[in-house]
Design brief:
The chain has 11 helices and 8 strands. The protein has 269 residues and is of the alpha/beta class. Helix 3 packs parallel to helix 6.
Amino acid sequence: MATGLLKTWLAQRDSTLRWIEFEAYARRVFANNPADWYRDPVRYAATLIQAQGVVGSHCVSIDITAPFMAAHDGGELPALFAASAPFDFVSEALNALTHRFEGRLDLVLKMTAPWDLLGGGDDASFDAMDDLGTALAACMRRFSDRPVAGLLLETARIETLSADEIDAYEPLVSAARHYGWVTAMALPADRHGAVASVGLDLDVLLWPQLALDAIPAAGGKPAHGGGLNDDVWSAAAVVPTGAQALLYGVIPATATPETIISITGAFKA
């Protein structure tokens, strides 16, 4: 069974939950930025485990679309997500992370949204997004028996999702909910809180580039999170200390290790 820290926080909201993305930073600092990053699942998992020892996040995201996209050498995207080599990579890495972290934190499957995978713009038609969403749902289904706590969709949108996007993403959200997972969406490109709603039945909406006091007020569901923006990770802004907050952010790949150790040490103090 998954640990359930996210579910507990959503139900009670009487403490601070930290959800920190750190794969790009860990890849550079702990693995020397290898070109074949998505080829060795043992190295991948060991690197995240080592980095988590410093970061201390309550949730660890595993990007399951990135290994498939790294293997993309042309052809239709929906078929790519049935490829065996990337699936084997994710499966082995998830096994190792589960062995280390189960019962200690929440593991979350992260997916880049179909609109973004298709490059956005006119190429992201409803049919294309729907086909890709179906392929992603089938890929996700293969991990449905793992101790996963949630699904995180990430999109670079800086405006409310279109009706086509909502229709294409709803099966992913519904499938995750069927598995008993928390559902979330991250908006890393929205630096001004322009997207107040995305039109999906989500549990959590996240703004990694907004300061804690700039996050749009949540009127119940979905819960809103953020506050750990680039200014925090560069020590240009103070570490937010909002009680009962969902603190979410992404450590930049170029962050200074000494600064990160200082900041994450403050979390644990």
